[in-house]
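**Backbone description:**
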Amino acid sequence: MSQGEVRFYAKDTPYYEFSNYAPQSIEVDGTRYPTTEHYYQASKYSYPGANAPSLEFSELIAQQTTPNKARVLGIGGTTQNYPWALTLKKLIKEYADKGATVRPDLDEARLDIMREALRYKFGPQNPHLVKLLLDTGTSLIMEDSPRDSFWGIGKDGLGENWLGRLLMEHREELGGSTIPAPKLLVVPPRLKKPTRKLLVPPSLLIPKRLVGASRNITPFIPTARVGSAVSAEFVEGTVVCLGGKQSKQKVWGTKLENAPENLVYIGRNWNSGGWKLPKSKWFNPFSIKKWETREKVLDMYRQYLLGNLEENGDKGLRSKKWGIPKTSPPGPELLKDIEELRGKVLACWCAPEPCHGNVLLEFLSSEV
């Protein structure tokens, strides 16, 4: 196949075999996993030093009848209330009470876990899948998921596409073709006021293992949940979560007065749980409670910063429909201060889920 694009996501569409939900089992160390999604989610609870409840929960994940059920157990819940979902919620609580814990280094290990899963899936166990992957030639491979901006390209097509990138990496390991350096892309035409050019979105970046050191590779935008080592060194350009079982207050103070100098709070006014955090000018005025989905909220924040939500001027934005407080500056005015965040670690409450902090980092990694 000549250079082009290979997109996969939905069932009964070409290249669905590349999806982690595809019904292709793999066997690892004597355990059979119905899909690579089963393997990935189960691996969150099977790791060196894991206690007995964690290992039992990992086995339970591997035994689920569908990849979606395995995912629900692996991520620790679902908002759905179907009978099967309620059953899984009870299991999650049961094993949490027993002491089952996700591996503490998940943020660092998840790419290697997925890399290993793909090597089993596209390996000697499934020669037909090896051929399918190699037959993609020099094509860019992208998981066309509108819901996942880490493993897929996300709703706006600017996601990190790590599943596609790892597939391309493995294709090269199998002796397949690498891909040429991608070119600059302009802002999608759906934006009403395109005022900037984006650097190549992470979804189209060549995996680092496929290129020479001379290639200019833009780093992806990571998110991380702060673990028990709250004094750990942070990497600039990340989003960290202030929540969790370990209290950061004892180290950083209720107002983050003792936090690392490069930590910037970007959330709402927060006076619960012992915190006394004033609202940041970078907070996201759009709530999931009102707008229903995280993807929609993040896209609205992005459009707000670009000035694309205005209906009747700035006054229209302050209406009940949008719910933007009167004290919040217009989005484009706020965007002018984006350089204040360069080299900073952004602190909020969402990580490792996608956060408006990732939207801010998108703008920092773009050409204005």
